[in-house]
C-alpha cells in the first residue's frame, strides 16, 4: 500500500512540475512579447543614412498568393535596397510572375538569377548562392517565397540591427486566410509555437527560423559566406550558431514573419512541422555533443527503423548535417 502511495505521489509531483514548467514558459513568452513585439520603431537619427539591404528571395514554383507576396517587397518604404530573385529551374513558371513585377516596378533595383549554383547538399543555399555573390550591401535579408511584408517591415528589422547584433529574426505567424487548415495554422503559430519561440528568445536560446532573417554579410563572409553552410539542411540553426559563437547577439523583430502561402491543407502542414521538429531536435543535440559522422548516421538509421512502420517519411528522420569526409 505504501509503495502505491509513493508511486502515485511521485507521478503527481512529476505532472505538477511539468504543469508549472509550461506555465512558466507561458508567462515568459507573454513578458517577452509585451517587451519586444508590435513596437512602432522610428529612425531617430535622420542625419545618419540607413544602410542598404540586399533581399534574397529563393523561389520555386507558384501558388495563388505568390504574386501578391512578392509585390510587397517591391513596395517597401525603405530608401535603399535591392531584390535578388533566385530561381533554380529555367522552366519554372514563377519566372513569368517575376517578369511581370519587374515591368510593373521598373524603378526598383531587382535582378533575376536562374540556375543556382551547386555548392552543397542544401537546395535552398544552392539556389541563393548566385544572388548572395551579387549582393552589394553589407546587410542581407533571406526571405522565403511564402512571406508577406508590410511597408515598414524592412525598416523595422534594420532598426533592430544594433552594433552588437549579427542576426535579426522574426517570429513565425500567419496572415488571415480562409478555410479550416488556415485556422489550424494560425492557432498553432499563435499559441504553442509562439510560447516556445518567445520563451527561447528570452533565454537567448538559438531559435531563429530561416524563413525571414536579416544578417551581416561581412561577418558571414569571415567563415566563407552562405556556401559554408550548404552541407547542412538546417542552415538557419547554423547561421545563428555561427554568429553567437563569435560573440554576436540575436534580436527579434517587433513584427512577425507573415506566412501567406496560397496552398494550405492539414497534411502538408503536419508534414512540414514534423519534418522541421525532427531536424531541429537532431541538429541541436548533435551540435552540442559533436559526435562523428558515423554516430550521426547510426542514430539516423536507427530512428528510420523504429519509425518506418508508423507511416513517417524516412527522410524526415535522416540527420541533415552530413559533412564530406
Question: Which properties best describe this structure?
Answer:
single chain, alpha/beta, 325 residues, seven-stranded mixed sheet, three-stranded mixed sheet, globular, disordered C terminus
In brief, what are we looking at here?
With 325 residues, the protein is of the alpha/beta class.
What does this structure look like?
This protein has helices at 2-36, 66-74, 94-104, 123-134, 153-160, 180-190, 192-202, 217-221, 235-245, 266-289, 293-307, and strands at 53-59, 81-87, 110-114, 139-143, 147-148, 165-169, 172-174, 212-216, 249-252, 257-259. With 325 residues, it is an alpha/beta fold. The longest helix has 35 residues, at 2-36. It is globular and about 80 Å long. The N and C termini lie far apart (59 Å).
Proportion of residues in extended strands = 5-15%
How far apart lie the N and C ends? 59 Å
The shape is: globular
Structural class: alpha/beta
Largest sheet: 7 strands, mixed
Helix content: 40-55%
